[in-house]
Amino acid sequence: MSEATAAQIERREPLMKIRGLTKEFKIKSRKLGAKPQILHALSDVSLDVYEGETLGIIGESGCGKSTLGRTIIQLHKATAGTVEYQGRNIFELKGAELKALKKDIQMVFQDPYSSLDPRMSVNDIVGEPLDIQFPKMSAKERSERIIEQLHLVGINSEQLSRFPHEFSGGQRQRIGIA
């Protein structure tokens, strides 16, 4: 990265700031009267994500990548730390505010097969978020948006009626992204 690019990044405000994010799980012992153990899944994770930036989290199996994502989007309750999105601490949001935020922040799960409903066609899978976020969208507009999203991820619109088991793992991930 050039010095000019680094300076530009430092002047911009992060879209998301994660500070001191910690997640611990209590593991109950099977022995009667034994104290629960603590599993330290995340310990003091801090990072910034800037608008237009793509951030990849890589690491060994079991190192906490999915737990990080799940904690950010509040599928797991953080033990400590904060996540700010557009200057707001998302852990303080409730109800309609939290629901609105979840339209902006989403996670693409590592295992595409388990995250796609095997009884739903690609058309239904990609269309479901549109139905939730834009309930007044016309059927024609919905269909156009679905096709547009599939084309963006390299899936042919002729495959709309197919089901997840008919695609490769990579194609399933792209369907999840769409």
Q: What separation lies between the terminal Cα atoms?
A: 30 Å
Spatial order of the strands in the main sheet?
A: 2-1-3-4
Total helices: the number is: 7
Query: What radius of gyration results from the CA coordinates?
Result: 20 Å
Largest sheet: 4 strands, antiparallel
Which blocks of ≥5 consecutive residues have pLDDT under 50? none
Rough outline: globular
Percentage of residues in strands: 15-25%
Indicate the structural class: alpha+beta
Roughly what is the average pLDDT, rounded to an integer?
A: 86
Number of strands: 4
Helical amount: 25-40%
Write the element-wise H/E pattern from the N-terminal end onward: HEEHEEHHHHH
Walk me through the topology:
Elements: H1 3-11, E1 16-27, E2 37-49, H2 65-72, E3 80-85, E4 88-89, H3 95-104, H4 112-115, H5 122-133, H6 139-152, H7 169-177
Antiparallel strand pairs: 1-2, 1-3, 3-4
Mind explaining what this structure looks like?
It is a single chain. With 178 residues, the protein is α+β, with helices and mostly antiparallel strands. The protein has helices at residues 3-11, 65-72, 95-104, 112-115, 122-133, 139-152, 169-177, and strands at 16-27, 37-49, 80-85, 88-89. A four-stranded antiparallel beta sheet has the order 2-1-3-4, covered by helices on one side. The longest helix is centred in the last third of the chain and has 14 residues, at 139-152.
Question: Summarize this, please?
Answer:
The protein has 7 helices and 4 strands; from the N terminus they run αββαββααααα. It has 178 residues and is of the alpha+beta class.
